[in-house]
Amino acid sequence: MFPTWFDKWNRENPTDIWGPAFLVGGAMGAVVVAGLIIAWGQPLPGDSLQTGPRGTGMSVPEFDRDRLAPDPSIADFYTEAPYVPEGGEPLARDVYQNVQVLGDLTEDNFLRLMNAFSAWVAPDEGCAYCHGDVDLEEYGQDNLYTKVVARNMIQMTQSINEGWDGHVNANKQVGVTCYTCHRGENVPSDIWFRMGPVNEATAGWSSIQNRATSMSQFTSLPSDALETYLLNYGRIGVHDLESRVAGSPADAGFPSIQDTERTYALMNYVANSLGVNCVFCHNSRAFYDGAEVTPQWGTESLGIGMVQEINNDWLVPLRDTYPPERLGPVHADAPKAACKTCHKGYQQPMQGLNVIADWPELATTSGTPDYSGVTE
Ligand code: HEC
Ligand code: HEC
Ligand code: HEC
Ligand code: HEC
Fold it and tell me: Do 308 and 230 touch, CB atoms closer than 8 A?
């Protein structure tokens, strides 16, 4: 292709052109990319939520892609304003045979709630999911477990909204309805069961940890953190600030290293449930120091008490009501809830949508809802 003299000269004067070529090419490429970024803007824009004093690194960064995307289940949320009673309307308890919880509602509000339960919990099956394939006159029967469970769930939801106002309305009115957990599914996502030993071949330390399970957030930390803290009221905390503590893990009440690891397992679960990092609540220079925390730490503290109550007072007692296929795979225990059952990976469930505004019936245990805040 080239004249012979050139090939000859080229052979006699070998030069490394690759090094300089890559250097020049790389530099030009970088200039082009930099030019594009300046011209088109940052390709992965984000923002960060500052949670502490400037310069301490206390911030929760997030890509706009995630931050601005709406939670897809918001669009499917069914809601309908109540019929504000004027007095004299027939009440559900007089019209029907077996209304134990919602008896003081007017008939139209009662049926409005029944519609919502179907949309929130059983959109495919409808009324039949709790009442069976029978005539409306027979809806008073309690022979399906789903109806018995649902009655308990109504009382649980009322009690969460009333008793844990400081959590579920921490920043502004948000509240919870059946949809907060169920999202149109019979069985809510992100429920949990007791896990017990994860390793049958050993006893002791490794039998509850060192296996990547979803319950340990796929770490080597213990798999029984939810059970210990959100069911059995265990003390959340690291072993001690001393470098070495006298005593043995076999002593009752001895704060062991495994307690520390279990605390970290719980904290990983919490952070993942809310889609945040640790400095959303803590100053990471002193995780133990209650004087250096953010307001969200307090909201979580209430949340821990709330979840313990949801599990122990409402969900665990339903164990004998469920059919066997709903019970846990290892211990046949009742399905339980925790942070992620409501939060689903978001800082606030359904990104802080006020779900309770139209449903004063679910906001109080008193039986007589307050319709005064309802605007028509
Ligand atoms: C998720 C479960 C669930 C779904 C779905 C459901 N209901 Fe109910 N229904 C209940 C519960 C629980 C009660 C009892 C409430 C109480 O004791 O206060 C009840 C009671 C009733 C009663 C009173 C029956 C009587 O005589 O005592 C009627 C009527 C009724 N529902 C109609 C409906 C209709 C219509 C639909 C569908 C639009 C429906 N329900 C969907 C759970 C459900
Ligand atoms: C705090 C979360 C939470 C809320 C709020 C909640 N539920 Fe549930 N619900 C659960 C859990 C956990 C289960 C157990 C799942 C299972 O059955 O395997 C459950 C189960 C049920 C079941 C049985 C479903 C089945 O197929 O086994 C029904 C029916 C039900 N809920 C109705 C309701 C209704 C109606 C409301 C609102 C009044 C409600 N739930 C509110 C968490 C919740
Ligand atoms: C949503 C708020 C929140 C987030 C996020 C969070 N924590 Fe916590 N953390 C708390 C609360 C509240 C407590 C105290 C619980 C109690 O004592 O009942 C706590 C306790 C702790 C403790 C025990 C401190 C002691 O007193 O010994 C450690 C360690 C800890 N968290 C580490 C972490 C780590 C690591 C992360 C990130 C993976 C994290 N936390 C994420 C709220 C949070
Ligand atoms: C029954 C449903 C439910 C459960 C279970 C639940 N939360 Fe919440 N949580 C909410 C609601 C609703 C809000 C929104 C309150 C608001 O913004 O006004 C909230 C808000 C919060 C906030 C405040 C967020 C902010 O932006 O200020 C934190 C922190 C939090 N939850 C942590 C937790 C932790 C940790 C758990 C588990 C121990 C938990 N939650 C369990 C319903 C729940």
Answer: yes
